[in-house]
Amino acid sequence: LLEAGIDESDRRQWGFRTSQRPAQLVLNALARIFALAGPVVMAIDLNDSEITQSAEGANQDLLADRVADGLLRRREEVRRTILEAVCTA
To answer: To 5 degrees, how large is the angle CA 69–CA 78–CA 38?
Structure first.
């Protein structure tokens, strides 16, 4: 999840095979690990300013579809986890 990735020497030292993983895979792995201990509530902040700005542009439906699709996929992929979409005004 680091933008610059993992330093090459650190990656080799700790035995990581790749320098970056898609955020989706990291989120799924964390949800699985946390679910081993018990039920999990995961809150996702939907960054209201980006959604507001995109609603003013031509791609408003595209963004809404992508957000909805992403949340539904997470719901299908995680176990013992409640997803909470957080929007603040």
So the answer is: 145
Task: Output the CA–CA distances (angstroms, integers) from residue 20 to 44, 62, 63, 83, in the order listed.
Answer: 22, 27, 25, 25
Query: Has this prediction a pTM greater than 0.90?
Result: no
Output the six-digit token pair for 68.
């909805």
Alpha-carbon gap, residue 31 to 37, rounded angstroms: 10
Tokens of 3: 């933008």
In 52-67, which positions are buried (b, 16+ CB within 10 angstroms) versus exposed (e)?
Answer: eebeeeeeeeeeeeeb
Tell me phi and psi for residue 74, to 5 degrees: -60, -40
27, 35, 48, 75, 82 from 44: Cα distances, Å? 11, 17, 11, 12, 11
What's the Cα-to-Cα distance from 61 to each of 19, 35, 46, 89, rounded to whole Å? 34, 33, 15, 20
Q: What is the pLDDT of residues 38-59, one digit of tens each?
A: 988 888 777 666 666 666 666 6
